[in-house]
Amino acid sequence: MSKITKKVGSYPYANVMFSIVSALFMIGLMGLFGLYANKLTTELQDSIEVQVVLQKFLSEEKRNDLQNRISNLEFVNQNIPIRFVSREEAAQNMIQETGEDFIEFLGGNPLHDVFRISIKKDFLEEPRIEELSKDLKKIEGVYDVIYTKSMISQIQSNIQKVTIVLGGLAIMFLLTVVVLIGNAIRLALFSQRFLIRSMQLVGATPFFIKKPFLSRAFLQGVFGGIIASTLLGLSIFLFSEVFSEMKLIFDMRITLSVFISIILLGGIIGFLSAYFSVNHYLKMKLDQLY
């Protein structure tokens, strides 16, 4: 019995590991792409601003009260502070951009003070943003509300398309990974089918037979995930050296979450693949093994 158990689970290692690492690297790459795309989408949505134009000559006290009132509205993104742009600052910015002193030409500054507010992404749909624009205009002290309707609609439309495409690709890649790892372990266990039958004939329990296969497959999946994570990390480093813009969007939390996920995924898929494969051979009749 001891000589037999030493061989149990010792199926070909290199081919299985290559398949596991390749599959997990692929799904990890897809995961990184999807999560970073989501991060960029969130940043893009946060950059959309609505300008609340104030009535002229509001006292500082009334302006502060107005800012507090607006900041407490349900559609205002609390994570991004309201930015106040005075009419003087706006005038200077316009003069710098155009190179012309329109104040001297007009004999005064026609601009208004402005609050620039960020809207929660749930309210960035065109009907809802029109509704909140009307609500803002009703507030005492507000002169007008300005936002770029066409840009918001275009951004939301593009985000929906990207989400659908990435979601479809993620499902496809995940299924591919499960099939690749499952087939690799199933083929490896095929070479052990007679050994499994020998264990049955000498009275070994199903659990005793499964245990070495399950532990080995789980460890192979985990080690495969570690190797795939290392390769992904090296790829990120090399790409960031070539394309310096990648350093601007790099997020350690996103990257680590993907690494941990593919390590766990490798272990789980390896374990389940071995479990179902060994069960399959345990239930086969002797003539079916040939």
UniProtKB/TrEMBL annotation:
Keywords: Cell cycle, Cell division, Cell membrane, Membrane, Transmembrane, Transmembrane helix. Residues 169-285 form the ABC3 transporter permease C-terminal domain. This is Cell division protein FtsX. GO terms for cellular component: plasma membrane. Its main location: membrane. It is found in: Cell membrane. It is a multi-pass membrane protein. Coiled coil: none annotated. PANTHER family: CELL DIVISION PROTEIN FTSX (PTHR47755:SF1). Belongs to the ABC-4 integral membrane protein family. FtsX subfamily. Residues 48-145 form the FtsX extracellular domain. GO terms for biological process: cell division. The keyword Transferase does not apply. It comes from the Bacteria. The chain crosses the membrane at residues 12-37, 164-189, 217-239, 254-276. It holds the Pfam family FtsX_ECD.
